[in-house]
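Journal club prep — side note

Before the paper discussion, L.F. wants everyone to see what a predicted structure for a comparable chain looks like in token form. Sequence:
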Amino acid sequence: MSPAARAQAYPSRPVRIIVAAPAGGPTDIAARLIGQSLSERLGRSFLVENRPGGNNNIGTEVVVRAPADGSTLLMANSVNAINASLYERLGYDFIRDMAPVGRIADAPLFMVVDPRIPARSVPEFITYARANPGKLILGSAGIGTPNTVAAELFKMKTGLDLPVVQYRGGAPAIADLLGGHVQAMFDIIADSIEHVRAGRLRALAIASATRSELLPDIPIMGDYMQGVEASFWVGIAAPKNTPAAIIGKLNDEINATLADPRMKARFADLNFTVFPGSPAEFGQFIAEDTEKWRKVIKFAGLKAE
């Protein structure tokens, strides 16, 4: 078949979207939103299949090894960019072995602190931390998560002595932050925004280049320093050598989905901002994110557990 005919016929059978994380999390919910829309738009089922384990690596490798015909896709996320440097040996190279299809959405991290510490802004936090070296502890959802690399990026930019305690997931880290056992955390907005609104935590800044449309009153890190940006992003990728015509068709349909105000609102409910764009733009974004975290992981000496 010619590329045009192949794209016109696609999909000729149900398509799997592999989520390398448990059901119910942000990656899974985003996959189900996109999958439902693609099913409606293309007339074939796009079925979400959860393959958690190995810090995203198990599910990712399923897609790397799948036929390059568009029948198996990956709901990639920021952990894929982190893993490229965190693991000394992987069974794949994400940039080399995967074809970017389309970026979907980003959820920036923000810096939250125990309101009992006397810091109401990032400069005040830095001043207090310098006066109390080693006494302020950052919580994290575990090595290999955006929480950890964001915390280490902040330490790299400020030179602060801030131990990072690793928890098995975000929930226990937030519980200890609420209990005063750790004093600060870089967290995905959706996970702790209700604690901020209730006054149980204080948000100091969002780790993004521009203010969030969802939280316009919270300052950005760029108001105080440059280069402290971190987000949890999601997007669709396919096995390398997937025909360009299929990738182009999927990208068109994903972008059309993200342009729908109703879909934008659904993602906003998850504290995500949609980011439509071309496969090339998504590929460049992945490469830049991978290189940024490579430098941070090297600086911090992080190793996969």
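L.F.'s comment for the group: The chain is about 45% helix and 20% strand. Keep this in mind when we get to the figures.
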